[in-house]
Specification:
The complex is a heterodimer of chains A (527) and B (365). Chain A has 527 residues and is an alpha+beta fold. Chain A is built from 17 helices and 12 strands. Chain A starts with a helix and ends in a 36-residue tail after the last helix. The chains are: A alpha+beta (527), B mainly alpha (365).
């Protein structure tokens, strides 16, 4: 007993020491990284002074004397005042019409009252002035005044709202998110007009200072979930955050799993539908895809079109898509297993035609399947980035010419072409491309297992995949819900889609604060 | 003691029980019961179900008195520390042996039907890897997986019911009912009971069930009813499909049930059936691995490591050459152990706990 106690004590001590060391370690890195970014001689917390010339110098130094930092001097209230702006970040027209124009014309008064900008801020810290400049503000320094005025004259060049190419829909709305974070939030707010829609901003990346926003519905989303997402984003300490993929990698639970654990979408209608389920949207400035957390496996097989067609049709297509997942994973593997191990499963007629086509093929079926699957990936990868006319040519050369020739040269059996073709089509069915690619990749281990152990291998690998799906948790919610854990009430809007008036409670996988979402739907019938 | 993270619902418990009970045993069950009970094999299975129901009640009464404890804690509480440890070790050995036996039988059957040339150790290694992968996670996730794969059992049950209309049947084979005599039927239910093992998992899952003191007996009874009727149905089907002479010679009659049926797309439905049946067989092994690990995991070793060690142990035992003599011998020992662990021990503990009145209800941990 005593020994045990001593051991425990020692363990605690070691933990304590390592914590202290870890702390030192961390602070060391922090110091280093700060040193590495801020080469400017200005201290982070330095304040403006009454001396305008000194202030001008400090701000210029803070921006490392960059040459697109423009300075213009004006006379106002018979004093000199200086306007700073980053040439590249401001809209010149609005700078002239709403800041310089009024100042020059009025000559007397309070600057904050005569300018026509939407946002007026007072700052006294040089670092704040510097970051305002980066956000597209212009800064006005006045003589004998230690506070600067920041006025928003931001230049906003973003492309127009278009339908996303990779998530086209037939009958749903045709707008899509763009690179600008403000427009994206506008698209969301336009659809969910409630004061409870809350936006929280984070600035991530010491160099890039990328704006990341978290959008959720305040009294619906699980408080624990909000805290957890905040905690994870807050813990990111990096130099650059360039796109949504970075943040996905930083905050997801199982980075080594093949299954995507965040739904990324460019469709506002899709994003809003998850918003009202009590999920959180993450928007990164500069990427048109927004992330939805937490998400379940089945969300990747849903499309907004399901809700706009009749429920029977919507359900049918959902079931077809799940079938496509199974087909994409197992179809080539089953073929390999049947051909190399269990040919007795097939009746003699089918077996005969398969055997005939295999007769002259010199390779084992696994090599055949791998070669064709990889050829297909090559074709896809080649045609994706080429301009459309050339991509079509690749398709024709690759698909038709190579496909036919390879069979005629009897390198590959024509049944294999059929199998691989079907598999590829099945994997492209997934409405979210990421999941389709994952399914296609998962096909490879299943094929290997099938060629080594036949049906037994297929079943074992499939079992492993489903075990993995059951084990996955994203932000504390099970990934394979509502099948594991099984929830009957959630099936009505995940695996199938029932009529809207049957969906009185929202899906519970993200633990919304209240479940009911509909009160009177077909009330007219009772009257 | 039991954290919320580990808790399972009664719905999940139902599937945990049926998944651990249904497994390798079914495939050869009709052949085994037919050996002694002849054409009354199906009565033996119903009898075995009744015995299990009786045991379930015993377990329930015992566990209700210690709603927060695993069986291994209960033995220590009732029998004292030292004796409790010894008994717990016997329980542990029983779980390991049963798990190994299921694995050995599974490897044997896969070698026989699906992969005749592949060495057995490769198959058992793969199976045990899959088992360890799932078992290292907590009971909640095991339960999720079991519920998920139970769709396979239900699917197979329905296809069996549908296909049963198409196979040639001869009701004469089971007539007259009761002709085998009571003694033979009882011997038959003895072997049927062995094929239905797995319900003792309740002894280690009970404290994890949410609201475990209310309505639990109903869940376990339903599970037992499901398994018993499933087994009886399949056995009955085999008994009327095959003549007694045929049945004696076919080792896995369940696989041969639909062999004669050929369709346009598939021949040899037995192979597809067996491939799917790999999953229920594996879940039984997972359950025994879980039970073995739960029964000895204490403060000394983390649960994950225990699972790993037990997995290796089961794998090593499965390396023993799979001759019929050895498996029969093992079967015999497992049956002795099982009587000790699933019957004698709980009844004994229940009686002792009544005598000493050492129950813990109302004590909150």
């Amino acid at each position: 007993m005593l020994l045990n106690k001593e051991g425990k004590l020692r363990k605690e001590l070691i933990q304590l020491v390592s914590q202290v060391e870890g702390y030192n370690h961390m602070s060391f890195f922090k110091k280093k990284s700060i040193r590495s970014i801020s080469n400017s001689p200005i201290n982070e917390s330095q304040l403006l002074t009454n001396d305008i010339n000194k202030n001008i110098h400090s701000i210029r130094d803070y921006h490392c004397r960059t040459e697109d930092l423009m300075v213009r001097e004006l006379i106002f209230n018979k004093n000199i005042c200086t306007i700073f702006y980053l040439d590249s970040m401001v809209n010149k027209d609005s700078l002239h019409s709403s800041v310089i124009g009024p100042i020059v014309e009025t000559k007397y008064g309070e600057i904050q009252h005569i300018v026509k900008t939407t946002q007026v801020k007072f700052t006294s810290r040089i670092s704040d002035v510097g970051s305002d400049l980066l956000d597209g503000f212009c800064i006005i320094l006045r003589e004998n005044n230690a506070t600067a005025i920041s006025l928003s004259v931001v230049e906003n060049t973003s492309r127009s709202i278009e339908e996303p190419d990779n998530e086209r829909s037939i009958i749903s709305s045709h707008d899509g998110f763009i690179e600008d974070i403000g427009t994206n939030i506008f698209l969301l707010r336009k659809r969910v007009k409630t004061p409870q829609l809350k936006v929280k901003y984070f600035s991530v990346g010491k160099l890039t200072n990328t704006k990341v926003s978290m959008v959720f519905i305040e009294n619906l989303t699980d408080k624990k979930l909000i805290k957890e997402v905040e905690r994870r984003i807050g813990s990111i300490e990096v130099d650059q955050l360039l796109s949504f993929g970075d943040i996905e990698d930083y905050i997801e639970d199982n980075p080594n799993s093949i299954f995507p654990q965040m739904l990324t979408t460019e469709r506002p209608d899709r994003a809003t539908s998850y918003l009202t389920e009590g999920k959180i949207l993450l928007i990164v400035d500069g990427s048109p895809r927004i992330m939805i957390v937490p998400i379940t496996f089945f969300a990747f097989y849903q499309s907004p079109d399901d809700y706009n067609s009749r429920w029977i049709i919507g359900t049918f297509f959902r079931l077809i898509r799940f079938l496509s997942f199974i087909v994409a994973i197992t179809f080539p593997a089953i073929y390999i297993a049947v051909v190399s191990y269990h040919s007795e499963v097939l009746p003699i007629g089918i077996l005969y035609s398969i055997r005939v086509s295999l007769e002259n093929v010199p390779f084992p079926p696994l090599i055949e399947a791998f070669a064709m699957q990889i050829t297909l990936e090559l074709l896809k990868e080649a045609s994706i980035r080429l301009p459309t006319p050339i991509a079509q040519t690749t398709g024709i050369v690759g698909g038709l010419v190579i496909g036919t020739a390879v069979v005629e040269a009897s390198f590959v059996s024509n049944i294999m072409i059929v199998v691989i073709g079907l598999t590829a089509i099945a994997s492209f069915v997934a409405p979210v491309n990421e999941m389709g690619t994952s399914a296609r990749l998962l096909g490879f281990p299943v094929m290997i297992a099938a060629s080594l152990f036949g049906f037994f291998g297929i079943v074992l690998v499939l079992m492993g995949i489903f075990m993995h799906l059951c084990k996955l948790q994203t932000f504390g919610t099970p990934y394979f819900a509502p099948l594991a854990p099984f929830k009957m009430e959630d099936i009505k809007d995940s695996i199938v889609r029932l009529s809207f008036w049957k969906l009185n409670s929202r899906p519970t996988d993200s633990k919304p604060i209240y479940k009911k979402q509909q009160w009177r739907t077909r009330g007219w019938k009772n009257n | 003691m039991i954290s919320e993270k580990l808790s399972i619902t009664k719905f999940q418990l139902f599937f945990l029980l049926i998944q651990s009970q249904i497994g390798i045993g079914l495939l050869s069950l009709p052949n085994i019961v037919q050996k002694s009970a002849k054409s009354d094999g199906w009565i033996s299975i119903i009898l075995a179900g009744v015995v299990i129901q009786f045991l379930m009640v015993v377990y329930y009464l015992l566990l209700k008195r210690y709603p927060d404890d695993l069986l291994s804690n209960i033995t220590e509480k009732i029998l004292g520390f030292l004796l409790g440890k010894v008994v717990n070790f016997i329980i542990y050995i029983y779980f390991i042996l049963t798990g190994s036996l299921s694995l050995i039988l599974m490897v044997k059957i896969i070698n026989l039907y699906l992969l005749p040339v592949t060495p057995g150790w490769v198959i058992s290694l793969l199976v045990i890897c899959a088992c360890v992968y799932l078992t290292t996670s907590d009971l909640r996730i095991i339960a999720r997986f079991f519920v998920l794969v139970s769709t396979l059992i239900i699917l197979l049950l329905f296809t069996n019911i549908v296909l049963a209309f198409y196979i040639p049947k001869e009701i004469q084979y089971i007539l007259p009912i009761g002709s085998a005599g009571t003694k033979n039927i009882l011997i038959g239910s003895n072997s049927a009971l062995l094929a239905m093992l797995g319900f003792e998992g309740l002894l280690f899952m009970f404290p994890y069930v949410i609201h475990n003191t209310k309505g639990l007996l109903k869940t376990t009874s339903f599970a037992n009813l499901f398994v018993t009727s499933f087994y009886t149905f399949i056995t009955f089907l085999c008994l009327i499909k095959f003549s007694p002479e045929q049945l004696q010679q076919i080792r896995e009659p369940v696989l041969y049930l639909f062999r004669g049926l050929a369709y346009k797309m598939f021949d040899r439905i037995d192979l597809i059936f067996l491939s799917i049946w790999i999953v229920p067989m594996t879940t039984s092994i997972i359950m025994y691995l879980f039970l073995a690990s739960k029964s000895i995991s204490g403060q000394k070793m983390s649960y994950k490591k225990t699972v790993l060690v037990n997995g290796v142990l089961i794998f090593l035992i499965s390396l023993i050459p799979h001759t019929d003599e050895i498996t029969n011998l093992m079967n015999k020992y497992v049956s002795y152990f099982s009587y000790a662990v699933i019957m004698v021990l709980p009844v004994f503990l229940l009686i002792l706990s009544f005598i000493f009145k050492r129950h813990e209800r109302g004590v909150t941990n």
